[in-house]
Amino acid sequence: MWRDGLLVAGKDLRIEARSRVVLNQVAPFSLVVLVLFALALGPSRVPMAKAAPGLFWVSVLFATVLAVQRSVSLESSEARDGLRLSGLDPAGVFLGKAMALMVELAVLELLLGAGVVLFYGVHVHSAVDLVAACVAGTIGLAAAGTLYGALAGGLRVRETLLPFLLLPVAAPVLLAGTRAWQAALGSTPGAAGDPWLRLLCVFAAVYVALGVVIFGPMLEAS
User: Fold this and answer.
1) For the chain, what percent of residues have pLDDT higher than 90?
2) In the chain, where are the structural domains located?
3) How far is 23 from 153, CA to CA, in rounded Å?
4) Which of 182, 184, 196, 183 is nearest to 131 (CA)?
5) Residue 184: CA count within 13 A, CB half-sphere
6) Cα 160 → chain centroid
7) 82: Cβ contacts below 8 Å, ≥ 6 apart
């Protein structure tokens, strides 16, 4: 399973490295979203610093939808038939696509984190909690995105259907990630980030386990 996962992840990352769609299109879009939020909040950095955790995760969700759509577009109907006939473990295919998506989201989050510091003037109080929230949230979003991307992949309306499927499901990541970042950045005095980190970990574990179990039947159905 892990060998097949690494093969699929390497394939997706090589395609992305050649096309650079995530870096040339998704990343600039996400940074523009941060700039527009900063303009909407006004010149004072006090409201921007308070809103920075939520705006970061909203931008991450938008970037996730675009990255998942890109991942789905790589697999045409013929490519999905090839995956089904290749003999690869379906759980490995799921893990591979999720790992490739995780790497892409991690790069985007680094850029968005730098943008938050630059535009909003935030100060990090606990870098460990900040990184832990990003890691757990990224795993959960990548697993859920891969799962719902496969569900919508065989449909003609996948570009419009995917956001309706993924964004409501990702609401716990938005909530828990925002609260964990508020605690890590000290923007909410007395806030505790541990319960929200646990929620992110539970979300990630549930969707990874769910994807490993049901991705095979979903691939066959698509």
Assistant:
1) 21
2) 2-221
3) 23
4) 184
5) 24
6) 18
7) none
**Quick check: 129 and 184 in contact, CB under 8 A?**
yes
CA torsion sign for 137, 139, 143, 149 is positive
SS (H, E, C) 68-100: HHHHHHHCCHHHHHHHHHCCCCHHHHHHHHHHH
**Which tokens sit at 179?**
């609260």
Give 31-88 pLDDT, tens digit per residue. 888 888 888 877 777 778 788 888 899 989 988 888 888 777 766 555 565 666 666 7
Q: What is the DSSP string of 104-140?
A: HHHHHHHHHHHHHHHHH----S-HHHHHHHHHHHHHH
Tokens of 99: 């790992």
The tokens for 63 are: 């970037």
Measured distance CA(90)–CA(215) in Å, rounded: 6
